[in-house]
Amino acid sequence: MSIDIKLISEVRDLTGAGIVDVKNALAEANGDKEKSIEILRKKGIAKAAKRAGKVAAEGLTAVKVAGSKAAIVELNSETDFAAKSDKFKALLAEVVEKVLAGQTVTEETLGEATASIGEKMVLRRATVVEKSGSEVFGAYIHMGGKISALVVLTGPADEEMAKDVAMHVAAMNPRYISRADVPAEVLEKEKAIYTEQLKTQGKSPQMRDKPENIIQNILKGKLDKFYSEVCLLEQSFIKNEDVSVGKYLESKGNGLGVKSILRYEVGEGIEKASCDFAAEVAEQMK
């Protein structure tokens, strides 16, 4: 039967359900608005829509490698409790498989999971990476999926070596691969901060009489420390802190390098809303 667009819009606004679900419910209810809402509620779809305003800042990440392609994803839920459930983990496995295969993760898929699990599900981000035949993937999942890392190494690398670098990326969170990757504006901002620090220190008796070349050496030292904190190749290698990641790779063979790094951490950058726990429990019980 033909369903009036206005009626679909009304039911959608009242329930928050997706257009396809609303159309199906109206068809099943022969166009009866109240009955269609009841059908949606019984299926759990209308209830799921009540989660639309919730912040999904918990969840898990996943990384999967298959041949010359790899995928890394972050799937969010409202609570850590839901993220630990078997249903959520099954959804995560399905999502990363779909992403790797180049398939679209539809709102219907997430909506069904939302209704089943009882919390809002959000595929926050996903990336597919491809490599050439001579390159090697390194994948590592940290803290049960709270952090995932994916790296691509070039040169005479092997999977174990690449996994070690991915483990380092997961643990140490480098922002860039090398100094050359640091944007000019970021570098200039750091220089300005350190220069201002030195000006302030320059007013002290200990700094006032230091020659300009000493001041410049101090500035260089501060920038070197910055690079060692944010650049992968200059960070102390997590499995041997006596050497940098760059030196570790050099020791493994000529021409060995890092082409790309990706690191997903659950909820990073999401502002989590504070809530009244008792009110949240009461809401969950509705």
What does this molecule look like?
The protein contains 13 helices and 8 strands. The protein is of the alpha+beta class and 286 residues long. It has a domain at 5-53: Ubiquitin-associated (UBA) domain (Helicase, Ruva Protein, domain 3). The strands form 3 sheets. The protein has a 3-stranded antiparallel β-sheet. Helix 1 packs across helix 3 (33-42), helix 2 (19-28) crosses helix 3 (33-42) and helix 9 (184-201) packs across helix 11 (212-230). The protein is elongated, with a radius of gyration of 26 Å. The model is unreliable at 274-278 (pLDDT under 50).
Any key phrases for this structure?
single chain, 286 residues, 20% strand, elongated, Helicase, Ruva Protein, domain 3, alpha+beta
Provide the fold topology.
Elements (H helix, E strand, L loop, with lengths): L4 H11 L3 H10 L4 H10 L2 H5 L8 E9 L2 E9 L2 H4 L2 H15 L6 H11 L4 E9 L5 E7 L4 E8 L4 H14 L11 H18 L3 H4 L3 H19 L5 E2 L2 E5 H8 L4 E9 L11 H9 L1
Antiparallel strand pairs: 1-2, 2-3, 4-5, 5-8, 6-7
Content-based structural category: alpha+beta
Which sequence of strands runs across the widest sheet?
Answer: 1-2-3
CATH superfamily of the domain at 5-53: Ubiquitin-associated (UBA) domain
CATH class of the domain at 5-53: Mainly Alpha
Cα shape:
elongated
Low-confidence stretches: 274-278
Please, how many helices?
13
* Cα end-to-end separation: 34 Å
Average pLDDT level? 87
What is the fold-level CATH name, i.e. the topology of the domain at 5-53? Helicase, Ruva Protein, domain 3
Would you identify the CATH architecture of the domain at 5-53?
A: Orthogonal Bundle
Q: Major β-sheet, in short? A: 3 strands, antiparallel
Rg calculated over all Cα atoms: 26 Å
**What is the β-strand count?**
8
Please write the string of helix (H) and strand (E) elements. HHHHEEHHHEEEHHHHEEHEH
The helix content, as a percent range, equals 40-55%
Q: What fraction of the residues are assigned to beta strands by DSSP? A: 15-25%
